[in-house]
């Protein structure tokens, strides 16, 4: 379907009409207009919302008059920040530039007074002390409820539950106590467990708690289990009596001349005719009349020609086959009626017991002054429906909202909309009603599991159009997608009629690239194509269960794909393929890449490990990752647990083995042996060993520190204690040295985030470390991973094109320790974008859940019209079948939406991988059809993968540092931007020399780790190196020759000769702070070698003409200064090594090598 890039439907118009981009922005940003915007991914929805916020302030609205709602705290904070940055930017502009800015936001003619007002907004907002309310729905609801009258029954100082699971577990304990006291309730529970199993019973009951908002509203409206009240079915003995004569005729006919199937049916029929128990009669008749799948048995095997003649001879009237079909269908009807009654009975038990569990949960919250998110929504719905109370609350908060803006409206759930609608309805016909602006995209509605319902968007648009005269705007023009990505998106979604997809256009002129990599051959396909000899080599063999671990075949496929993705990224990082803001191509950087997965469990860790093993910095970067799942947070939590309760042996073992303690396995074994021999706890044994065993300095150090920290437990709050632990224990330095360089920034950020968690948790009101530890261990707190900012976000939002703007900015900044590949689930990637998106393992789908809630709640209704529990997809009540089909249709639509979200994260390149699937490979089939080519054909596109990608093509690289190394590089604080290794006026090397230089570094790094680097390099195959490193054959040969000349050079060979080297490392990162002289920064030493007389800092240069030390003196001095304290008494020497083997030593200033006292740590 095609449509204008921008369209508007004004009040009084029956349909939308095309408009210009300028008109679109002018209508959307007008604070006096009520506006509903539907805009595609990358169309600038957030830009529009911030622009309208600024326009509202410019038009005289006070900050307290403005309410902006979004769906995450992070998004709310970003929106607030972007508004202030925009106002600050306006404050600094001259008249002409400011007039252009205002024109881009719908004010084409700005006079001097307007320019002065715009320039004054920033200081006015800062000086006013009151900012606009920018929050989430739940944050706004909580603000309202804290000011609500007492008659609403809301706890005066309530605490918000962010993780309800631990409280539900406590509610279970209360329910079990109640079951002991109430025999009738206990009988229901036992019956439910007997019919469904304990696990399913618990899931059914917890569904009531999880969907308590809808459950309570349906209960109040009397629509619980609507339609699940089937009449009493005919009993099986009664059905047998009614059909007894005919059943006996069939028994006689089968006994006289029936075949094998008939004789088997005869046995069950005779038993059914003789049985007295009703349930047994029913079970036997099912076996006679129905198949195992529950369908009527065919007459072909039971009513053969001979049986038919016998039936007629016995006096049967009519066609025997027809009579059999009628009898079987009649039996099926009775079976279905009994099944419906059975489901109804189980459903009644589950609802009653679920309501009891919910009652225990509500009682627990009431006793402790707790509210959860559902409580916020329901209470806000009640409060906002009362116009007088709502106005009173706003007045009390000094808020009278005249501008209401809501972002990502497609994620709104029905209860939230009911609360908002109840409030807005009170303004019907009121001239002082607020101006409402909502923006969203139905195609990005992917949170049904959080109760989001896209039909709410349609209901809201209709309500605002009828009651508020809203303007309806739509935008199908994106500023994000490259031409190649756009073409693929349009082609894929043209085959999704349920989405009513409108083809997009794009502002981008970047060509981009897309590819669907084929799934590797399945074992069966490989076997079919193999020769007999190959088949025997690859045929499965019997595993030795005593010596070989069981390997999950599915996990093996994922690991294969993870290595393939790592190989692809290494290839993209070696060749110019990303277009910068000036239209120039450059190699990809880690920060350019967003790796998307459909499932987190059993997937993300495998891809993360593969990237790190390939030397590619990567980190989980989505909203679903938890700080408390990281090893740094777990180590710190274990340390606090040891301090407050020293008897925990497992916690102590974890801390001692971590970088906090620094013990090795032999130390832990000695500690365990001492504890066993002395029959003491590990803590007591550690005290004993620390006092008597001088050979365990690491244990003595830890115990001294831990006892000091333990003495502070009663006097310091958790945050201050943790701050002291991090400083005194040198945790930042220790973790920086213990983790690979690619993970260093993430590791340090996670330590800082855990320390801040102690301050942020519940406003810092937990004053004891014990309470802090207890809350974390009981799962009563949630903490997102710290965000690693990839590049710098431009301060001047004016750089963004305003018609209509962009959701994000292309990053062209320098590489930094935060330059990492981000891994995310598709659900967690909303709001993210990247130059390169890799959708890995595209066909994996989350496992089908068990029981679920069936809900029918039209958006225009104030309560659900139906609420029931679905036991399973195969056990449905007839009244549920239509609802189940509606759920399947909604799930199918959301699956398309999820694919849309995944594809539209890509600015320039989109790569998709898939794995061999047992079932239907749904996404890869959609993508292949949409691309208009087979997967194999698409995979042939540039750039090609190296041969053997995913099959060991990328070897794991050793971490840059290790806790066991003889020499430690001191970590001198957070690394900043690395300075250039050449002066600004040095000639720019051409791309060919750059690629050869990179390859030279890689070859020397790999070969120097071996005993005979010259033999290793000489044995290299130039075509193989070319494929591995993305070079042509000539470049690979040049790199090999240069590396060989260096390691064989009389001047340079000693730096690679294992017989003379005491210790060496490659690619060593060093950092310096401002106190070390000048600006803080970081750099990477190509090779660091300790010989008998000196520590050598080596820097490789491809061309001999580059050996001009004055060009590199500043950075070489930094390197020397950073390494000067490594070996007191040894000089630091620095040399440049060229590709022809020549060596030029740079004279290190004497001040750097001046004698200094030996530090205790070096000693």
Give the helix/strand layout.
Elements: E1 6-9, E2 17-18, H1 21-29, E3 35-39, H2 45-58, E4 66-70, H3 73-92, H4 95-104, H5 112-128, E5 133-136, H6 137-146, E6 159-160, H7 165-181, H8 183-196, H9 198-210, H10 212-221, H11 236-242, H12 244-257, H13 260-274, H14 278-289, H15 299-302, H16 305-313, H17 320-368, E7 370-371, H18 373-385, H19 387-396, E8 403-406, H20 414-425, E9 435-440, H21 455-468, E10 471-475, E11 477-478, H22 483-493, E12 505-506, E13 513-517, H23 523-529, H24 532-538, H25 553-572, E14 576-579, E15 585-587, E16 593-597, H26 604-613, E17 618-620, H27 631-644, H28 649-657, H29 665-678, H30 682-692, H31 697-710, H32 718-728, H33 731-738, H34 744-760, H35 769-777, E18 821-825, E19 834-839, E20 852-856, E21 866-870, H36 881-903, E22 906-913, H37 922-931, H38 935-939, H39 991-1007, H40 1013-1018, H41 1022-1029, H42 1033-1048, E23 1063-1072, E24 1081-1090, E25 1094-1101, H43 1109-1123, E26 1131-1138, E27 1143-1146
Parallel strand pairs: 3-9, 3-10, 4-5, 4-8, 6-7, 8-9, 11-12, 13-22, 16-18, 16-19, 17-18, 19-22, 25-26
Antiparallel strand pairs: 1-2, 1-10, 14-15, 20-21, 23-24, 24-25, 26-27
Helix pairs in contact: 2-3, 3-5, 6-18, 7-8, 7-17, 8-9, 8-17, 9-17, 12-13, 12-16, 13-14, 14-17, 18-20, 20-21, 22-37, 25-26, 27-28, 27-35, 29-30, 30-31, 32-34, 33-34, 39-42, 41-42
């Amino acid at each position: 379907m095609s449509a204008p890039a921008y369209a508007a439907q004004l009040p009084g118009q029956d349909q939308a009409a095309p408009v210009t981009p300028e008109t679109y922005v002018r209508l959307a940003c007008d604070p006096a207009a009520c506006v509903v915007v539907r805009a595609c991914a990358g169309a600038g929805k957030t830009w529009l919302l911030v622009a309208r916020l600024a326009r509202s302030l410019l038009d005289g609205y006070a900050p307290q008059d403005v309410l902006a709602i979004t769906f995450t705290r992070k998004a709310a904070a970003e929106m607030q920040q972007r508004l202030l940055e925009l106002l600050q930017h306006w404050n600094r502009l001259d008249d002409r530039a400011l007039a252009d800015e205002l024109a881009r936001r719908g004010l084409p003619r700005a006079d001097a007074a307007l320019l002065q007002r715009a320039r004054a907004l920033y200081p006015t907002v800062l000086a006013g002390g009151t900012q606009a309310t920018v929050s989430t729905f739940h944050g706004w609801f909580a603000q309202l409820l804290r000011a609500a009258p007492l008659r609403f029954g809301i706890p005066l100082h309530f605490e918000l539950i962010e993780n309800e699971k631990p409280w539900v577990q406590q509610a279970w304990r209360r329910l079990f106590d109640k079951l002991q006291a109430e025999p009738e309730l206990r009988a229901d529970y036992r019956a439910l467990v007997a019919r469904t199993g304990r696990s399913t019973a618990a899931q059914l009951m917890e569904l009531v708690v999880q969907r308590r908002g809808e459950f309570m509203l349906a209960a109040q409206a009397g629509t619980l289990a609507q339609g699940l009240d089937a009449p009493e079915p005919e009993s099986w003995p009664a059905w047998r009596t009614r059909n007894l004569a005919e059943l006996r005729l069939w028994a006689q006919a089968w006994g006289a001349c029936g075949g094998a199937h008939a004789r088997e049916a005869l046995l069950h029929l005779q038993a059914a005719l003789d049985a007295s128990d009703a349930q047994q009669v029913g079970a036997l008749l099912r076996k006679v009349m129905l198949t195992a799948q529950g369908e009527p048995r065919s007459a072909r095997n039971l009513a053969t020609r001979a049986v038919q003649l016998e039936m007629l001879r016995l006096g049967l009237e009519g066609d025997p086959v027809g009579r059999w079909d009628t009898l079987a269908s009649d039996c099926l009807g009775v079976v279905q009626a009994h099944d419906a009654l059975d489901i109804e009975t189980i459903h009644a038990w589950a609802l009653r017991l679920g309501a009891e569990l919910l009652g225990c949960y509500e009682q627990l919250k009431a006793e402790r002054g707790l509210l959860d998110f559902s409580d916020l929504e329901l209470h806000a719905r009640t409060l906002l429906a009362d116009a007088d109370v709502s106005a009173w609350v706003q007045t009390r908060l000094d808020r009278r909202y005249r501008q209401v803006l809501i972002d990502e409206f497609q994620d709104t759930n029905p209860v939230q909309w009911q609360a908002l609608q109840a409030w807005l309805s009170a303004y019907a016909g009121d001239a002082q009603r607020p101006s409402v602006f909502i923006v969203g995209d139905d195609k990005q509605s992917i949170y049904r599991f959080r109760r989001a319902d896209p039909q709410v968007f349609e209901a809201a648009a209709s309500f605002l159009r009828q009651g508020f005269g809203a303007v309806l705007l739509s935008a199908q023009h994106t500023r994000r997608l490259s031409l190649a990505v756009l073409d693929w998106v349009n082609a894929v979604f043209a085959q999704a009629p349920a989405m009513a997809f409108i083809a997009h256009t794009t502002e981008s002129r970047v060509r981009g690239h897309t590819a669907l990599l084929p799934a590797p051959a399945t074992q069966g396909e490989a076997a079919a194509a193999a020769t007999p000899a190959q088949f025997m080599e690859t045929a499965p063999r019997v595993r030795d269960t005593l010596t070989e671990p069981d390997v999950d075949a599915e996990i093996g496929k994922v690991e294969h794909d993870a290595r393939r993705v790592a190989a692809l990224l290494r290839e993209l990082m070696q060749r110019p393929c990303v277009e910068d803001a000036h239209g120039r191509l450059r190699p990809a950087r880690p920060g350019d890449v967003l790796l998307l997965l459909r499932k987190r469990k059993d997937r993300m860790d495998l891809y993360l490990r593969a990237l790190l093993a390939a030397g590619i910095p990567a980190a989980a970067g989505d909203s679903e990752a938890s700080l408390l799942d990281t090893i740094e947070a777990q180590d710190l939590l274990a340390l606090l647990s040891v301090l407050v309760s020293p008897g925990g042996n497992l916690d102590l073992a974890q801390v001692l083995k971590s970088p906090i303690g620094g013990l090795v396995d032999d130390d832990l074994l000695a500690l365990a042996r001492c504890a066993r021999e002395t029959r003491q706890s590990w803590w007591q044994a550690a005290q004993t060993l620390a006092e008597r065993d001088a050979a365990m300095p690491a244990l003595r150090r830890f115990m001294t520190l831990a006892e000091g920290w333990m003495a502070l437990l009663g006097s310091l709050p958790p945050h201050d204690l943790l701050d002291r632990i991090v400083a005194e224990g040198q945790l930042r330095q220790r973790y920086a040295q213990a983790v690979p360089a690619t993970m260093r920034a993430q590791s340090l950020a996670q330590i800082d985030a855990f320390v801040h968690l102690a301050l942020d948790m519940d406003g810092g009101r937990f004053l004891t470390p014990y309470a802090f530890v207890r809350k974390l261990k009981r799962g009563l707190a949630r903490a997102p991973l710290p965000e690693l900012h990839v590049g710098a976000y431009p301060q001047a939002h004016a750089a963004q094109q305003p018609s209509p703007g962009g959701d994000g900015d292309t990053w062209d900044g320098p590489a930094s320790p935060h330059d990492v590949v981000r891994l995310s689930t598709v659900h967690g990637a909303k709001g993210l974008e990247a130059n390169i998106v890799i959708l890995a393992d595209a066909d994996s789908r989350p496992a089908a859940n068990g029981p679920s809630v069936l809900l029918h709640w039209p958006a225009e209704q104030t309560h659900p019209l139906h609420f029931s529990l679905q036991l399973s997809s195969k056990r449905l009540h007839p009244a549920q079948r239509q609802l189940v089909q509606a759920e399947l249709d909604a799930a199918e639509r959301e699956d398309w939406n999820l694919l849309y979200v995944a594809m539209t994260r890509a600015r320039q390149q989109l790569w998709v991988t898939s794995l061999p699937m047992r079932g239907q490979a749904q996404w890869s089939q959609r993508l292949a059809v949409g691309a208009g080519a087979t997967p194999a054909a698409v995979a042939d596109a540039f750039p090609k993968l190296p041969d053997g990608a995913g099959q060991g093509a990328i070897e794991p690289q050793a971490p840059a540092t290790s806790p066991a190394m003889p020499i430690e590089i001191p970590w001198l604080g957070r690394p900043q931007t690395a300075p250039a290794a050449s002066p600004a006026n040095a000639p720019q090397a051409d791309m060919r020399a750059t690629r050869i230089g990179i390859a030279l570094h890689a070859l020397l790094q790999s070969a120097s780790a071996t005993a005979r680097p010259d033999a290793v390099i000489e044995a290299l195959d130039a075509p193989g190196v070319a494929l591995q490193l993305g070079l042509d054959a000539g470049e690979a040969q040049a790199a090999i020759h240069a590396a060989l000349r260096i390691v064989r050079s009389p001047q340079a060979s000693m730096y690679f000769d294992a017989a003379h080297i005491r210790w060496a490392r490659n690619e060593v990162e060093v950092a310096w702070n401002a106190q070390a002289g000048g600006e803080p920064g970081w750099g990477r030493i190509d090779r660091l070698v300790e010989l008998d007389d000196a520590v050598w800092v080596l820097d490789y240069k491809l061309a001999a003409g580059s050996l001009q030390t004055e060009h590199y003196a500043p950075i070489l001095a930094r390197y020397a200064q950073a390494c000067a304290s490594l070996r007191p008494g040894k000089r630091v020497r620095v040399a440049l090594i060229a590709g022809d083997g020549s060596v030029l030593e740079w004279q290190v200033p004497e001040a750097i090598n001046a004698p200094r006292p030996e530090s205790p740590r070096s000693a």
